[in-house]
From TrEMBL:
Gene3D superfamilies: Tetracycline Repressor, domain 2
Listed Pfam families: TetR_C_15, TetR_N
Domain named HTH tetR-type: residues: 18-78
Keyword entries, A-Z: DNA-binding, Transcription, Transcription regulation
Keyword Transcription regulation: yes
Residue range(s) of DNA binding per entry: 41-60
Species of provenance: Aromatoleum toluolicum
Keyword Glycoprotein set for record: no
Name recorded for this polypeptide: TetR family transcriptional regulator
Length: 220
């Protein structure tokens, strides 16, 4: 599945084509909800959507591309909210690193929760291959990524940190967060639905970034 660009083979240029794409996405979700992951094939999607398999293949290479497009549609429809959350995270970073990390972790997990709830078991098959940040960066190049804004946020609180390479630390935070979420989706997906999972992720990142009391300075 493509991750850093649109999963569509071609973009719709007419309202009829847009209606076809909508029918394909809706059929996919309907099959997942009513028939289950095992029944999800491109032939079945085309049948439920009321189109020919040839029409489906004009736009999508396979069912994974359809799923990626559903993920993109779901999350980009919330882009204004995501931008607000980005601004809120950056604003929080000025005052409290702990609050910033807590908010950042909660929103990151919430994104995966939404996709898991929409695609159910099929998301467990594709989640490693779907990268919303890469997709949104290509579509909205002015949107800051986590590794863009986090180093400066860390620098504001350097007295409380054990890390000194803020760019590397930002990458480690992103990789640890994403890696843990994806590994959990593989092994125990229902765990991401719990508050305990969010709390432990937050604690893990705080412990990585900040000094223990014996190392010196107290909190920000």
């Amino acid at each position: 599945m493509a991750t850093s660009h649109s999963p569509l083979r071609r973009s719709p240029t007419q309202s009829r084509a847009a209606a076809t794409l909508k029918a394909i996405r809706e059929a996919t979700l309907r099959i997942l909800k009513e028939e289950g992951h095992a029944r999800l094939t491109t032939n079945r999607i085309a049948e439920v959507a009321g189109i020919s398999i040839g029409s489906l293949y004009q736009y999508y290479a396979d069912k994974h591309a359809i799923a990626a497009d559903i993920c993109n549609e779901l999350l980009t429809s919330e882009l204004d909210e995501i931008r607000r959350l980005d601004r809120q995270t950056i604003a929080l970073a000025k005052d409290s690193l702990d609050s910033t990390l807590a908010f950042f972790v909660e929103e990151h997990v919430a994104r995966h929760r939404r996709l898991y709830q929409q695609l159910q078991d099929f998301y467990l098959e594709i989640h490693w291959k779907y990268d919303f940040e890469s997709y949104s960066l290509k579509r909205y190049p002015d949107k800051p990524t986590t590794t863009d804004w986090l180093p400066s946020a860390l620098r504001r609180h350097k007295q409380a940190l054990r890390v000194t390479d803020y760019a590397l630390a930002a990458q480690m935070v992103v990789h640890a967060l994403e890696g843990t979420i994806h590994a959990t989706l593989d092994r125990n997906p229902d765990l991401i639905m719990t508050q305990a999972f969010i709390d432990e992720l937050h604690a893990m990142l705080v412990r990585y970034l900040t000094k223990v009391p014996a190392e010196g300075t107290s909190n920000e």
